[in-house]
Amino acid sequence: MPYIKMVQSKNSRNVSTQLTCRICYTSNRSHFTGLRTCEDIRHLGNYEVFYCEACGNGFTTPDIPPDHYELLPDASDDKISSSANTLLRWFVNRRIQKLLDLLDIPKASLLDIGGGACAFANGVARRGHRVTVIEPNEKNAKFADVSHGVTFISEMFSEVLIKRGVLQPNSFDAVTMWHSLEHTSDPQEVLRTIHAILKPNGVLLISVPNLASLLARFGGNYWTYLDVPHHLCHFTQRGLKRLIEVNGLSLCRSYRFSIEYDPFGWYQTLLNVISRSHNYFYNSRKKRRPDESYLRYPRWTKFITAIGPVLLPIVCVMSLVTLTANSPACVEIAVRKESL
After folding, report:
1. For 5, phi and psi rounded to 5 degrees?
2. Strand 172-178 vs strand 198-209: parallel, antiparallel, or unpaired?
3. Where would a tag sit more exposed on the chain, N or C end, judged by fewer CB atoms within 10 A?
4. Domains of the chain, each with CATH number or no CATH
5. pLDDT tens, 137-176?
6. Is the dihedral of CA 271, 275, 277, 282 positive or negative?
7. What confidence tens digit (pLDDT) does each residue in 16-72 have?
8. How many whole angstroms separate alpha carbon 209 and alpha carbon 305?
């Protein structure tokens, strides 16, 4: 893991700073992006995002202590409204279809890294495929559908799993990372390990927030897909593609728009900017977190969220602008390991 050390300057906000990028390992002049710890988790301390000119990506500094990193599991289905459940299942089915469109195997072996509450993994397994989930939050193990053969491994994904024999080289037809690569401290190690466990011509599907998107630039620190300090890395389209190529994988498909991430991203970000709070709608609907002691949202935020549907016409317009400008809220790409 590369060590990130800030060289002190008299005014780190106005000048670039000498840092070692956790993504490309280059020690160069990095620029403060203005992004810092999210409003809803200020209690975790002061963290900042810097942009690396060498690789075109961003990274969070300093490192987050392990006791600050725990991510709460998603709420169970019985705690989410039926309409929200229907929409979430539709999104999951679209993810599954993206994967199946890339595979021509009746019974593929899939590794889902950072599988969370296992909705995607369970859906793939119910279609007859062999699925393993790597998820460090053991609280999510209860969601794995063992009746359909889903294997849940509660560990961080790294090359250590190969050395210990937990994962075997050339053993998976596909690997998926739905918003998990940004949580890793060393993305290059992750991609090298994925390259090792993929079979020849195996496919990797990645989705990460787009640091250079119109949505990110509009929202700033109220950008809905900003999760500092839990997001250790912040990718751009150019930066992620370059990182993929460096680690022996070839781009085979790039998605310009996501019906799951773009409209919702604009909706929640607009709510954030107006209410000056971060992700109340998401936290209350999907995570069921508003009763946490550190998430005491003001009445103004709840009022803005209640009348939020009036923003939907703006959301539709901005989603169309996003598509036209080829500036998706999230970078979604599919890559392959070249055949031997």
Report:
1. -130, 125
2. parallel
3. C
4. 77-222+243-258+329-337 (3.40.50.150), 263-322 (no CATH)
5. 888 899 999 999 999 999 999 999 999 999 999 999 999 9
6. negative
7. 677 899 999 998 778 999 999 998 888 889 999 999 999 999 999 998 887 777 666
8. 23
